[in-house]
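I had to read the description of the data format several times before I understood it. Each protein is reduced to its one-letter sequence and a matching series of backbone shape codes. The format is easy to grasp once an entry is in front of the reader. For illustration, here is how one protein appears when written out as sequence plus structure tokens:
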Amino acid sequence: MKNSLKRLKVLQKRVSRKQKGSKNRAKAKRRLAVLHDKITNQRNDFQNKLSFRLVSENQAVALETLNVKGMVKNHHLAQAISDSAWSSFVTKLEYKAQWFEKPS
């Protein structure tokens, strides 16, 4: 995932340096869109595997309510917090807990 995020930075810079309306800019945008899809798939795959493992290996899973808006204001952690997509992870965790009939 880290490599993909580094690659994302590079591709975004390449798109911004292309002339608007050019065919090369369109190609660069397509590459960028493919990378965005790849990152989304990587994130979903990791969340699904982790949530399955947490629910299947434990009797109960406890979730903490966090102030994400306040945490994102910390510029050192903002990108990592945003990339983790906590709400979708919590949704997957709750779904799998119901699937395994375990309390969450």
Remarks:
- The helical segments are 2-17, 23-57, 68-72, 78-84, 86-99.
- The radius of gyration is 18 Å.
- The chain has five helices and no strands.
